[in-house]
Every structure is written in C-alpha cells, then in structure tokens.
Amino acid sequence: MIADLAELRLKRTPLYVDADFQESQLSVKSKIARLTGPVHCNLKVSLENERVKVEGRLATVLGLTCCRCANEFEKSVDKNFMLTYVSDPELGGNGDEFELEYDDLEVGFYRGDQLDLAVVLTEQILLEIPMKPICREECRGLCDQCGVDLNVGTCDCTRELTDPRLATLAEIKKRITN
Ligand SMILES: [Zn+2]
Ligand SMILES: [Zn+2]
C-alpha cells in the first residue's frame, strides 16, 4: 500500500489506514521468524513541511524458533510507533536543503512522493524479532550429544563442561575424589 504524498499535499488532511496486511504483502523473511497471521494496523500519515509523519499501532503474532530447543513458539506483538520520513537527499528531493536535527532518531527517507506503508510495517516487525529467540527463560534446550529435548525428557549422556578452565577443574576434582 503506497501513501501518495502529492495527494496528501493537495488535500491537506491526514491519511488514515485501518487495514490487515498479509504475509505476502510484507517481506518479513527470516530463518527464525514468520508471521502466523495478518498484521493489523492503524496508521495516520500526515505531511508537514515536507516531512511525513507516520503514527500508528500494529498488532500481529510472530512464530519464532527457539534457539535452545528448536521448538516453535508464538510471540504477540502489539506496538505503537511514530516515525518521520524526509525526502531522500541523494535524489535531490524537491530541492530544499535541510539538515537533520540530532533528535531525529527515527528518520527514514521517501522517494518520488511515495511512501510504501508495507515497507514501513515490515521494518517495525523486523525490529521485534529477537536475535536469539528463547521459548521461555528456563528452557533447558537439547542435549548436545543425543539431541533429546531436555524440557520433556532426560538422557544418560554425561555432559562435559565446555569451558576449558572448568573442565580442568572438573578433572582435578575427579582425581582428588578417586
Ligand atoms: Zn526452547
Ligand atoms: Zn543426551
């Protein structure tokens, strides 16, 4: 969905969007995350002094893969955001010179009087994907030797301590006790 800035400029009223975006309309491509349903959004797009302000809220459910146990789990996302977009200076925009202020932390760029709202939403969703998703804090993960899910079962593998310093300690301990 494209916000037509020429039209916004002409009408002088904000554009309100209340819509569901499907996964096929967005490009949330990640090995560890996917959308389990549509992304519902409420947006207000307004233009002021050639700056586009996008205020809104989005809600969806992400399917994430736990990095410890490899099980899929769901995470609800419901966030409010406020973003500012200015004409891409590399393209010359409308010829106006401007300098970004230091407090413009959330500034993006638009090109050719168009702002693709699907891109705006995709960026906001990608920000919600954790680097290392964990299904729950106490997830015990998989046994690194036999692969059993230690959340649901146990195994007889002796898990060696991986830290070499600790391994040495363990070795010393073993010698003392034997
Ligand atoms: Zn897990
Ligand atoms: Zn095991």
Blueprint of the fold:
Layout: E1 2-4, H1 5-11, E2 15-21, E3 33-35, E4 39-48, E5 51-65, E6 72-87, E7 107-110, E8 114-116, H2 117-126, H3 164-177
The structure holds zinc ion (2 copies).
Low-confidence stretches: none
Spatial extent as radius of gyration: 25 Å
Main β sheet profile: 6 strands, mixed
The termini sit apart by 71 Å
Helix content class = 10-25%
Derived structural class: alpha+beta
How many domains? The number is 2
Bound molecules: zinc ion
Task: Please explain how this structure is put together.
The chain is built from three helices and eight strands. A hairpin with a 6-residue loop joins β5 (51-65) and β6. With 178 residues, the protein is an alpha+beta fold. It folds into two domains: 2-126, no CATH class; 140-178, no CATH class. The strands form two sheets. Strands 2, 3, 4, 5, 6 and 7 form a six-stranded mixed β-sheet that branches. It has a two-stranded antiparallel ribbon with strand order 1-8. The chain has helices at 5-11, 117-126, 164-177, and strands spanning 2-4, 15-21, 33-35, 39-48, 51-65, 72-87, 107-110, 114-116. The longest helix has 14 residues, at 164-177. Helices cover 17% and strands 34% of the residues. One zinc ion binds next to loops. One zinc ion is lined by residues 143, 145-146, 148, 155, 157.
